[in-house]
Specification:
Elements (H helix, E strand, L loop, with lengths): L22 H22 L5 H6 L14 H6 L1 H16 L6 H20 L4 H29 L3 H31 L8 H16 L11 H6 L3 H5 L2 H7 L2 H14 L2 H14 L5 H5 L1 H19 L2 H24 L3 H13 L1 H19 L5 H31 L9 H25 L10
Helix pairs in contact: 1-6, 1-7, 1-8, 4-6, 4-19, 5-6, 5-8, 6-7, 7-15, 12-18, 12-19, 13-19, 15-18, 16-17, 16-18, 16-20, 18-19, 19-20
């Protein structure tokens, strides 16, 4: 039984007890690493290729159940889950069942929602199932992180190593769908429903594996009664007190602005690369995650050497640059230029994601005191991954409907050029607004 590895560990919220040297020490970390791997592998199997599947079944194509512009709105389902997630995870902090068992239930529910989506006969059913999936799935990210933090004695040093296995899982998911499957079967599945079916199997496997995770009992009843949950904090006067601080309010506005260009790539990147006949597109797109690991290792040094604002501007600039590259690809007739810029746009993901998302998390942690830290991070999730990404998804869907035809994959290069110029312009505008109006606050400014 997994719980025997950590007998005597304090309940969730307390510090983990040091583990004895030997096989149990390695066994614990191996189990946590595999759990983190499966957590990201299951989503990476199908989310990257979602836009390609929708495009292949839009209008008169394939199943014909989707309308033009739906790809952007479909990706936005994750944003709805992100908005609900802080409230759900806050309520789950008051849970009366172990975290490992709660993860099992959530993964099974996520698999059920994905099964409904796979068998959907209408766009409304498909979208509703996607929203249901992400409401179940997104809380598992924070629960998995909390479980890992709880069981690692030196989590500051060891957590990044365990978390890296999540990135490895995402990379191998792309390799599975984009390279391994076509290599063994002789045909691509990036426009098919198959990746989502693989995702169902992976979610079930994740649920079963939760039985192998270290037992993580709930907080003691006395602790639960004394501590307010994140949900209560977000609904209480703490939120107003945080927003009344100019530094925090400005930081949340910046987080919202920085998120606006993102969903164009997440919703249409794989579709576009397949349209350009980039072989094994899903596998090659994982090069961005490999660069992401390197950027995360460099981030602490860059924050000290060049400062938070410069790093943030570099990240937003990378978003503008990658969309500019994709627009040039659409307008270029030179094969070498097209190939080089396609790979450049993929590789820029590491800097674009890390220097914006992770930097903002660090900044919010710095300007909020310990009393407000959990609430501030919850607000950051709502403003960036929630409202920001949702608005971005709507803008992407409108741009598709306006600039591309219902048969998205068959549009002429000129229309794709116009499409990519939209997020390029949004990124450039956000860069200017942040450069002019954002000044990072001091550490622990709010207390």
């Amino acid at each position: 039984m997994a719980s025997s590895v950590l007998e005597g560990v304090e309940p969730a919220g307390g510090a983990a007890q040091p583990n004895p040297p030997g096989s149990s020490w390695f066994s614990l970390r191996r189990k946590l690493a595999v759990g983190m791997f499966l957590q990201h592998y299951s989503l990476g199997l199908w989310f990257v290729t979602l836009g390609s599947f929708i495009a292949a079944n839009t209008g008169d194509l394939g199943l014909g159940i989707f309308t033009a512009g739906f790809a952007g709105f479909a990706v936005g389902a994750a944003s709805i889950g992100a908005i609900a997630s802080p409230f759900l995870t806050g309520l789950l902090a008051d849970r009366y069942i172990p975290a490992d068992r709660l993860l099992l239930v959530l993964h099974l529910l996520a698999a059920s929602m994905l099964t409904v989506a796979v068998n959907a006969a209408s766009q409304a059913t498909f979208h509703t199932a996607l929203v249901g999936f992400f409401i179940c799935y997104i809380p598992t990210n924070s629960l998995t992180n909390a479980l890992v933090f709880h069981h690692l004695p030196d989590n500051t040093r060891e957590f990044p190593i365990v978390r890296a296995w999540g990135t490895i899982g995402w990379v191998l998911a792309g390799v599975t769908v984009g390279w391994l499957w076509p290599s063994f079967t002789g045909h691509s599945i990036e426009r098919a429903i198959t990746p989502m079916k693989l995702g169902i199997a992976a979610e079930i496997l994740s649920a079963v594996y939760c039985l192998c995770l270290p037992h993580t009992p709930p907080a003691k009843l006395g602790q639960i009664r004394r501590k307010s949950t994140l949900a209560r904090r977000l609904l209480s006067g703490e939120t107003l007190e945080l927003l009344s601080a100019p530094t925090m309010a400005l930081s949340l506005v910046v987080a919202f602005l920085a998120a606006l260009p993102t969903q164009f790539y997440y919703g249409y990147g794989n579709l576009y690369f397949n349209h350009l006949e980039l072989g094994h597109a899903a596998a090659k797109m994982t090069l961005g995650q490999i660069v992401e690991v390197g950027c995360m290792l460099l981030l602490p040094l860059l924050l000290v050497r060049v400062g938070l604002k410069a790093v943030l501007l570099a990240g937003v600039g990378c978003w503008a640059l990658r969309y500019g590259f994709l627009a040039i690809v659409a307008g270029s007739s030179t094969e070498t230029v097209r190939v080089v810029l396609m790979y450049a746009a993929i590789l820029l993901h590491g800097a674009a994601y890390t220097f914006v998302s992770i930097t903002l998390q660090v900044h919010v942690n710095q300007v909020s005191g310990s009393r407000f830290r959990a609430t501030a991070q919850g607000l950051l999730v709502i403003c960036s991954s929630g409202l920001g990404h949702l608005t971005s998804s709507v803008l992407a869907g409108i741009s598709e409907r306006t600039l591309l035809t219902s048969t998205v994959g068959a549009v002429d290069p000129e229309r794709w050029l116009q499409f990519w110029l939209v997020p390029a312009a949004i990124s450039a505008s956000c860069w200017i607004l942040i450069a002019v109006g954002f000044t990072p606050g001091k550490r622990r400014q709010i207390s």
